[in-house]
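WARN retry 2 of 3 for item q-0093 after timeout on previous attempt; input resubmitted unchanged.
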Amino acid sequence: MREVEQFKWIRADARRLLLVATACAGAASAQVPLRLDPVVVTATRTEARAFDLPVAIDTIDALLLQRNQLEVNLSESLSRVPGIVVANRWNYAQDLQVSVRGFGARANFGVRSIRLYQDGIPATMPDGQGQSGSFSIASAQRVEVLRGPFSTLYGNASGGVISIFTEDGTDPPQAQAQIVGGSYGTYNAIAKVQGIAHGVGYVVAGNHFATDGYRDHSEASRDLVNAKLKFNVDPDTRVTLIANSLYQPEAQDPLGLTRAQWQADPRQSDPSSVLFNTRKTVNQQQGGATLERQLGSDTVARLTVYGGRRLVRQYLALAGTLPTSSGGVTDLDGDFEGVDGRVSGRTIVGGGPLTLTAGVAYDRQHQRRKGFVNNNGELGDLRRDEDDFVNSTDGYAQAEWAPLAALSSLSFLAGARYSDVRFKSDDHFINPTNPDDSGRVAYSHFSPVGGAVWHVAREVNVYVNWGEGFETPSFIELAYRTVGTGLNFDLRPAVSRSAEAGIKAYVLGGQKVNLAVFSTKTSDEIVIDTATGGRTTYKNASKTRRRGVEAEWEASLPYGFNAYASYTYLSATFASAATTGLPPLLIPAGSRLPGVPQSNAYAELAWARRDWYGISAALEGQYAGKVYVNDRNTDAAPSYAIANVRVGFEQAAGAWTFREFVRVNNLFDRNYVGSVIVGDTNGRFFEPSARRNALAGLTVNAKF
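OK item q-0093 returned
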């Protein structure tokens, strides 16, 4: 019955989409040339035009990622993509808050419910916990954002996939130096070299970022290096090597604010952040290699191996002195590695091309976890000592088929993935008051997905898809029980079933229009139970529902103008009653999921004249609806609308290129909450965003 109701909702909107498609087909009929839509690989693992796929996928290119930006956070550019919310917490101890169609909004640090990849190598740990801080925006060629059911083909994820791809080496070689500085003592110094030498393409980029912070006790710095080598062993074999390093020493954590604190002074930190000197240190190195081998004219084999180490020490806003406490300082020392092998082949079936891909993946994580007393910001006595292990084994297959000529207006994409994820914990902190909390748990699931595209006209496509996926708890979510000690092995994986319909079209002189409607039902969704002082416990809700609409429009206008707009409507609710907190409090059915705005929008009007000293300018507008801060919807961060403006210049002199820019964010000086800490037991829900602030930058590029 759940699937029937779900498809009724999609079917009603699909009828409307067909009417829109018919109108678009008429509007597009005069357009003869086929548009150069971006080529993507995240959806199918092979190169394909995004326009021709039965999925919602967007690409952000290097120009949008790097030009006239700080080049530190994905929130600088991904906020334009419909269906995704990337909130800058202005707190580098907790990373960005990223959600896709409402999945991931519960994460009070890091990225959950979304798979992250860098050049095909996972930036999400095998347990499902990810960090975007290791992404090198300065060396990025593009970012692909996949939303909806087909993200399940990447395994333990529910909402989507974010993939960043590093640039290739250039011929001729070039070197670049860049400095960006602005409000609150913020600056980012970037150096990059790239080229091709003796048949080896190379890119090396490094940056040093530092800020005094918008809020009190929010100082941070970050050093990031990313390198890529690409070469051919022989005409049929290509190798790509990737290495990156992130070092973030003691990013201060100002914590969230209560409503009264935010309204009194949004720049303050909570007093407990100073008392316990809350902060976080991260040191991560990761490397990987990909080998691609052409096995004949229609078959390609690909093997990826990777490994790395991640060290984290975080001081929380609590002492953790009790013998059964896990402490107020978390110390993590983790190794991770994995391998992914697949074969793709192309043949003719039923008079049409069929592309098949099959592969297996194995990922492993070993995390040495300790907890210590927080003696007012100093490391105290040991309170936790364990070794945690995760092993994930997956097999997957997918097929893309355009049947015989009589049905040439149709194409199909389908796939499935079987995942087996095993958690194990060996407790070493055992005494008469703290029993042995060792344990293990295993989760497995078969996730099918399928979609179809109807090519209504040369520049109009209509698609539908359906899929099922699952999401295990991460070790962060298993780490604490609401009552008692040890890992929370009672948590179950969430299982989601999604349906989607959409239209992609170029109309009225090449204006790009994308529209998608979707419905997702989730059983056993993992939600926050309690959150105190940086420590969060989780539980399973019974059922949740997400229904939404995503719209996107882009056009090239006369006189050098370009316009872009996107809008997302998302109804994310508890489909049945649940409880939260201690003592348990009722969450009525129909309550909104916290951390998720019901509406958000982005608009941009840009103008450029290369013959006028390379001048470019743009006005950006961003809107987000109110966001509830807990499951019971007792308080909410209010809606907000802000505007940003940027102006840039470019000059070329022989082999040299110079670029300058000025950018003003929050032009009208709004006092608003950009992100929330979901379910904070102390009521410190609100993370204020910066008032009006400015950036200025200079780039020097030389070819040699």
